[in-house]
């Protein structure tokens, strides 16, 4: 199965599960950790071995303060007697946090490090929550916009499908410089952030296909991107 279809199936599973749980009056429990159950179930059904939740990031330093830097989900596979990362996933919930932008960028950078250093890895970034929160916190939030080299202003997590954007970590016009500068300080010796990170959108679920109808504002959605370098 191709990486796009694999991610689309996972997004569809997440959105169906959240909306089912909502009908069971469990929405008061929803948060980022709550997503671990459907994602873990989905991944385990396809990978009987090799699933590693909360996997210590292999390319970031631990400075002894707070929790070690982790990747939310990793699938490892034994290749030529070595266990290699073949899938890495970071997940974000559409919360009220004022640091949502910073946390999204940090996750994208962490996935980019894996994509750049683990040549067999496919890396996915997923956001889930209410559709109305997506609109207000990301799609219509100027903080998520930056100017490309050609002068065009775009949203970092724009939902044009098919479509991709390139985040340049050394751009002269300084795309999200504060977050990127801090991320560089966390790198292990001899590790570098890739100069260009491609963020490819694979759609929003529930997906109404050609029907112009969009999700209801209180409907729970899942959106996903593949992170490449």
Kindly describe this structure.
It is a single chain. The protein has one domain. Helix content is 30%, strand content 30%. The chain contains 5 helices and 9 strands. The strands form 2 sheets. The protein has a 7-stranded mixed β-sheet with strand order 1-2-3-4-9-8-7, sandwiched between helices. The longest helix is centred in the first third of the chain and has 21 residues. The protein is globular and about 50 Å long.
Q: Roughly what percent helix?
A: 25-40%
Number of strands: 9
How many helices? The count is: 5
Protein structure class:
alpha+beta
* Poorly predicted spans: none
Strand order of the largest sheet: 1-2-3-4-9-8-7
Average per-residue pLDDT, rounded, comes to: 89
Biggest sheet statistics:
7 strands, mixed
Query: How many domains, as an integer?
Result: 1
Could you tell me the strand content as a percent range? 25-35%
Short description:
This protein has helices at residues 3-23, 36-46, 100-117, 131-139, 177-185; strands at 51-56, 70-79, 82-93, 122-130, 145-147, 153-155, 163-168, 196-205, 220-228. With 229 residues, it is α+β, with helices and mostly antiparallel strands.
Layout of secondary structure:
Layout (H helix, E strand, L loop, with lengths): L2 H21 L12 H11 L4 E6 L13 E10 L2 E12 L6 H18 L4 E9 H9 L5 E3 L5 E3 L7 E6 L8 H9 L10 E10 L14 E9 L1
Parallel strand pairs: 3-4
Antiparallel strand pairs: 1-2, 2-3, 4-9, 5-6, 7-8, 8-9
Helix pairs in contact: 1-2
């Amino acid at each position: 199965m191709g990486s796009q279809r694999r991610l689309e199936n996972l997004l569809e599973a997440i959105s169906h599960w959240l909306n089912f749980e909502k009908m069971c009056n469990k929405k008061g429990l929803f948060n980022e950790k709550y997503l671990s159950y459907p994602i873990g179930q989905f991944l385990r059904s396809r990978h009987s071995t090799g699933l590693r939740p909360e996997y210590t990031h292999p390319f970031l330093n631990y400075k002894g303060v707070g929790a070690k830097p982790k990747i939310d989900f990793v699938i490892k596979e034994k290749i030529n007697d070595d266990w290699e990362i073949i899938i890495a996933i970071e997940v974000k919930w559409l919360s009220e946090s004022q640091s949502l932008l910073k946390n999204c960028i940090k996750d994208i950078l962490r996935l980019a490090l894996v994509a750049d250093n683990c040549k067999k890895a496919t890396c996915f970034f997923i956001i889930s929550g209410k559709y109305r929160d997506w609109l207000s916190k990301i799609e219509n939030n100027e903080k998520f916009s930056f100017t490309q080299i050609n002068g065009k202003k775009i949203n970092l997590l724009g939902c044009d499908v098919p479509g991709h954007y390139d985040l340049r970590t050394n751009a002269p016009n300084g795309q999200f410089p504060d977050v990127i500068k801090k991320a560089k300080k966390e790198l292990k010796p001899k590790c570098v952030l890739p100069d260009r990170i491609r963020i490819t959108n694979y759609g929003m679920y529930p997906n109404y296909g050609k029907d112009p109808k969009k999700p209801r504002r209180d409907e729970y959605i899942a959106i996903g991107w593949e992170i490449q370098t």
